[in-house]
Design brief:
Elements lengths: L11 E7 L4 E7 L2 E4 L8 H6 L3 H7 L3 E2 L5 E2 L6 E6 L3 H13 L6 H17 L6 H12 L5 H7 L4 E6 L10 E4 L6 E2 L2 E7 L7 E7 L1 E2 H6 L4 H5 L5 E9 L6 H5 L2 E7 L5 E7 L7 H8 L10 E4 L24 E6 L3 E9 L10 H10 L7
Parallel strand pairs: 6-16, 8-18
Antiparallel strand pairs: 1-2, 1-5, 1-13, 2-3, 3-4, 6-7, 9-12, 10-11, 10-16, 11-13, 14-15, 14-17, 17-18
Length: about 375
C-alpha cells in the first residue's frame, strides 16, 4: 500500500498498479489516488513522451482507486544504471576488485587505500586535467583500477541494470543471486528519461550489489546485476514542477534502513550533493547521437552508500541475510520497501512486453497515434 502521508501534498505522482484486468496507471495528488489508464496514453512511456507530461497527468480524467499492489512505475523504458559516481563508494569498488571478492581482505585494503587515494580523489572533477595527473601518478605506483578509470576519467560507467518490464515495485521481494555471499543494497535516485533526453520526473531505486561476484571480475557485471527481482524501483515517479526540480535532486538526501530477522539493524545515507558527475551529464552520456531510446529509459544515478559495519565476522563488513527488510526513503519521493530473498525464491518474471501489449489490446487500450 502507498504511504500517502509520506508524500508531498503539493506533488504530482505517477505510478502503476495491478488491477482486476491487468496493469493500470495511477495519479496521486494531495492524498488522492486516481486510475488514469486511458487509450490516449495507456503506458507510463506514453505519458512521459507527451510534450507536457505534468499537464496531461494533472488533467487526465479517471476514477478513484485504492490499489493494493503497486508495480514499478515504469513499463516500456530500458533500465540503465550508472556506477562509480561517488568518490567514497568508488574506493569500495577498488577494494572489491583488489580483494577478488574475498570479504576477509576488505578491512586491510580499506585502511591501505584510504591513506593513499581516498582524500585526493574526493575533490576531483572527472575528466579534468587534475584527474589525469592523479591517474598518471597512480599508474606509476601500480595502483590504477578500472573503477578509478570510470570514477575520475572522462567517460562514466553506464550499464544495463535489468531488462525492460523486469523491475519489481514496493513491498515486493528483491532477489540475490544464490552464488553471492557478500552483497548489499544500493539506495539510489532514478531518473525517468524520455526519448528526447528530457527528464520529466524522478523516483527511488535499489540497485542490488553482489560485491563478491563483481569483485572477482568486472566481466561478471551482468550476472551481478541482472537476475530475477534484483532491481526495485518506486514507489512512484514524482513529476517535476515548481515545487520539485532537478536542483532538488542535486541536493537530495537518501536514507537507508536495513532490519534483519536476527535483530541486526543498519542505517546509512547517500547525499546527492557529493556526486562526482551532474545528473544531466550522466543523461547526456547515456542518450544522444551515439545511442537512441525510442521508449525512453530509467537511469539509476549511483550511490554514496557502501556499508562497512560488521555483521557476521569481524573485519568482513556487512552482507545481507535472507528476510532483511530494506527501506529507502527521500523527502518528497516517499519510501521504497522490499524484503530480501534469493532470486530463485522470488516470484518468477512472467509478464513481459509482449504480455503487456496483448493485455492492453484485449482491453481496447491500444490505438494509433
Amino acid at each position: 500500500m502507498i504511504e500517502l502521508s509520506e508524500l508531498d501534498k503539493r506533488g504530482v505522482y505517477l505510478g502503476r498498479f495491478w488491477g482486476t484486468n491487468g496493469p493500470g496507471i495511477i495519479r496521486v495528488v494531495n492524498g488522492q489516488c486516481t486510475d488514469i489508464t486511458h487509450p490516449v496514453a495507456p503506458t507510463i512511456r506514453d505519458i512521459l513522451e507527451r510534450s507536457d507530461p505534468l499537464s496531461y497527468t494533472c488533467n487526465a480524467s479517471g476514477k478513484s482507486v485504492h490499489p493494493e499492489t503497486l508495480l514499478a512505475p515504469c513499463d516500456l523504458q530500458a533500465i540503465k544504471a550508472c556506477g562509480v559516481t561517488f568518490a567514497e563508494s568508488m574506493l569500495e569498488r577498488v577494494i572489491e576488485e583488489r580483494a577478488g571478492g574475498d570479504p576477509s581482505r576488505a578491512a586491510d585494503l580499506r585502511d591501505a587505500l584510504s591513506g593513499i587515494i581516498g582524500g585526493a580523489i574526493a575533490t576531483l572533477r572527472p575528466g579534468s586535467d587534475a584527474a589525469q595527473r592523479v591517474k598518471e601518478t597512480l599508474i606509476a605506483e601500480g595502483m590504477w583500477s578500472q573503477y578509478l578509470e570510470v570514477g575520475i576519467g572522462p567517460d562514466a560507467e553506464v550499464f544495463t541494470k535489468a531488462q525492460t518490464m523486469s523491475a519489481v515495485g514496493p513491498d515486493a521481494m528483491i532477489g540475490l543471486h544464490p552464488i553471492s555471499k557478500w552483497n548489499n543494497p544500493e539506495p539510489e535516485i532514478v531518473l525517468a528519461v524520455n526519448s528526447r533526453g528530457e527528464v520529466p520526473g524522478v523516483t527511488l531505486g535499489n540497485d542490488v550489489n553482489l560485491r563478491d561476484v563483481e569483485g572477482r571480475s568486472a566481466l561478471l557485471l551482468g550476472k551481478a546485476k541482472d537476475n530475477n527481482a534484483s532491481c526495485a524501483i518506486g514507489p512512484l515517479i514524482r513529476l517535476f514542477d515548481e515545487h520539485f526540480t532537478m536542483d532538488d535532486v542535486r541536493q537530495a538526501e537518501l536514507l537507508l534502513h536495513v532490519r534483519g530477522e536476527d535483530g541486526f539493524a543498519l542505517e546509512g545515507t547517500s547525499s546527492m550533493a557529493k556526486i562526482s558527475r551532474d545528473p544531466m551529464d550522466l543523461v547526456a552520456q547515456t542518450i544522444g547521437d551515439h545511442h537512441q531510446y525510442p521508449d525512453g529509459f530509467m537511469l539509476f544515478l549511483g550511490t554514496l552508500f557502501a556499508p562497512t559495519k560488521d555483521r557476521d565476522v569481524a573485519g568482513e563488513g556487512f552482507t545481507h541475510h535472507i528476510g532483511d527488510v530494506v527501506s529507502i526513503s527521500c523527502a518528497g519521493l516517499g519510501t521504497l520497501v522490499n524484503t530480501v530473498a534469493l532470486s530463485p525464491d522470488c516470484p518468477p518474471w512472467t509478464f513481459g512486453t509482449s504480455h503487456l501489449m496483448r493485455n492492453l489490446a484485449a482491453r481496447g487500450l491500444l490505438q494509433e497515434h
